[in-house]
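Hi team,

As requested, here is the filled-out complex form for the iron/sulfur cluster run. I kept the field names the same as last time so the parser does not choke. Let me know if anything looks off before we queue the next batch.

— J.
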Amino acid sequence: MADSVPTESGSGSRSGDSLAQVDAEIHDCERCPLSQGRILTVPGEGDPNAVVMFVGEAPGAQEDKQGRPFIGRSGKFLEQVLTQVGLSRQEVFITSVVKCRPPKNRDPRPAELSACADYLDRQIALVDPRIIVTLGRFSMARWFPGEKITQIHGQVREIGEGRVALAMFHPAAALRNPPWRTAFEQDMQRLPELIRQVT
Ligand code: SF4
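And here is what came back:
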C-alpha cells in the first residue's frame, strides 16, 4: 500500500467538458471496430462526484442490451460485495476501459483500448475520484503496467493527480474461481479505510 494517501485535488477537466458531452460522443463513436457489433454503448454511470471510481474491462451481453455497466451476474456480485463494506453503487462511479462490447466477449485489443482511452481520461478528470479501483487485468494494466493481477490484487498505489489505485480481480473472474472470490471480498474491505484517509 502507499505509505500515505494524497488528498490534494487533481488537475480537473478540460474547459467546458461534461459527462453528458462524453456520453454523447461515445454514443456516436466509430473510432474503433467495436462500434460495428454493439447494440448500445456503455459509457458508465454513478455519482458524478464519486470518491471511488470502478473501472472494468468491457460491456458484456446484458450491458450491451441495456447500455448500463455491470448489470449482469458479475454486477450483482459487485453490488453485493459493495454492500458488505457499507457502499452502494449509487455512491460510486462505474465504467470500463472500452465502452462497446467486444464480439463474443473476447479481450479488447490494444488498438481498441488506445482508441477508447480518451473517454476514460475525460471521465476521470470530470468525476475527479480520489480512488480508482481497477477490476481485472485490462484496467489494472493502465495503472500497474507489466504486473500480474494474481500478484498485486489488494495493493494500493499512488497514481498522480492526488489519486490512488486499488487493484482487484474482475468480479466475473472472482465468481468463477473460489479463492479469487475470497480475495475479491477481502480486497474490497480495504475501501472504507482508504475512503477515510482521502476524505
Ligand atoms: S469501444 Fe470506445 S473507441 Fe471503440 S467505438 Fe466504442 S466508444 Fe468508440
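Two things worth flagging: The chain has a mean pLDDT of 93. The radius of gyration is 16 Å.

Thanks,
J.
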